[in-house]
Amino acid sequence: MVRFQLGVDIGGTFTDFALIDSTSGKISVNKTLTTPPDPSEAILNGIKELLEREGFKLSQIDILIHGTTLATNALIERKGAKTALITTQGFRDIIEMRRETRYDLYDLFIDLPEPVVPRYLRFGVRERIDKDGKIITPVDETQLIQIIDKMLKENVESIAICFLHSYANPINEKKAGEVIAKKEPSFSISLSNEVAGAIREDERFSTTTINAYIKPLAERYMRNLLCRLNDEGFKGKLFTMLSNGGLTTFENAIKFPVRLIESGPAGGTMAGVFFSDLLNIKNLIAFDMGGTTAKISMIRDGKPSIVSTFEAARLRRFMKGSGFPLMIPAIDMIEIGAGGGSIGWVDTLGLLRVGPESSGADPGPACYGRGGEEPTVTDAALILGYLDPDYFLGGEMRLDKEKAILAIKNKIAIPLGLDLIEAAWGIHRVVTENMASAARIHILEKGYDPRRFTLLAFGGAGPIHAWQVAKLVGFRKIIAPFGAGVMSALGFLVTPVGIDFVQTYLSKLNEVDWDRVNFLLEDMEKQGIEYVTGAGVSASDVNITRSADMRYIRQGREVNVPIPNGKLYSDNTEIIKNTFYSVYKDYYSRYLTDIPIEVVNWRVLVYGPKPRIRLEKSRNFNEGSALKKKRPVYFQEYKDFIECPVFDRYLMRPGTKLTGPAVIEERESTLLVGPGGRLLIDDYLNAIIEF
Asked: Which of 83, 84, 204, 387 is 20 to 30 A away from residue 350, measured at CA?
């Protein structure tokens, strides 16, 4: 029986922990500063603190799930392995040519991200497969051996193999991989048909080269982490969060680390899915604001939105096309440089800006007293009275208010001719406006009304800013869960093990060869069942979801359409067509019936059951005893500081009601309730705020 499960989320500033006892439903949490040189150091330290406090041992943990920023940081900081690309002769520049489009049409000095594989390490080899999968030219093994010798001389560590049309027939890629592995087993090899086996060369090549680039680093990190955990007595299973909101095994994470790029933020969204189901609130906006970034995602009808491609490591954070395209399923979210560590600065026009640069965990905000001198969002919150300098991380880390004052005064107030409070409120307001604008655009671009959504606020800094964000966007209700500061780590614990597959077979819907489709789907399902049962899921608990990427003929992009399980026949054509119309209308508010429909990709998702997690309900009511003290807190509604009541979250029981203004403190985060806000603590100790 699985009793203890531990989630670990490694963020840019803090590493968060959530431990749940499945027998009682009790959740225990912890937060510690991330150790960028070796993230496993923070993991081990934080686990030790948490388990000692709760009276457990690491050997009692049955499942440990972790999300990491390692893949993202390695790509952004260019700290991956020396990587080579082997491709079809004449096509080695695909990763540099990209789609020959400009993400900023009027910028004459536009920059594009430098490929992770330099040109001198890109090699063409004689081989060819046509678009239908027919072998035109087998791999020239003699030429391949010569290329291997060149790579050895250049001390190449990892190789990406990307041949034209390998999505239609991977035989040449597999043969090249076998030849290289036999000749030099030390090479780390990534095959495009395994990493991203769908049509579109730019995305497929980009995804595979990045997988190869970060694979050796990810493997060293993962094996070192498991070794250190085992040395401390860990005997359970280790899983890793995927970008699409699923879990993968230790070995699969090592093989395909590119799928971990958004693993941490995905945990926050899955926590939102959990609370959507728990509280029967179908439409939520998950708002996760940590120390470095803020993530915003939409949950509709209790489900997150999944995209098949996204961009990583953008040169310009808000410019689509300025990053690396990745062909992997991921939760559809926006991520902006707005966290507690985001730095306030004055631009050349004399305007106040906040982010995207962050002070991170080292040195951190000025008030951390670790050498940071730049004014940050956390420094502003401290000056405005939102944070208690003696109760940060439950009092384990004291904040230095004088250093916060000095940083904001010298870098913001004096240059802009403002007093200290105006400057601090300016930082707070600007970062809040940034997040509110991003949330509003994200919702409106999907065609929805923000007033129909509830804001779920979490992360270390999310509950402080939720009140202002909600007012600016138009949300009518805010939910701040108990333990909001480590909610992404909890999200890991409510996520099923799963794996997805995609296979390109391009055809008009009314001309589909259903025998071929059935073979593709059944083969993907077989592989998926073997994977999830190998991860410990009972065969009777395996779930399968099918879909197809479809479009009107001659369109450039597709929409993902659910398709029936079981054997498919021509009789299913009408059902699938009508489903396409429904999905298309949901995206674009209309559909056309006189244009042929084309199917591009066939997809299969195989996953286990959702973990049976139940939160502990508290039955004790302790009215009035949660009040800790009063302190001066700034509210724009009053344009001044007022003596504001401060409450201890751990003493607030179900049924507790209050009217703002109020500050509610717990170890990992602080919740701000503005004037007139009506707060209720529910049976699960969630704080529900209505306007």
From this structure: 387
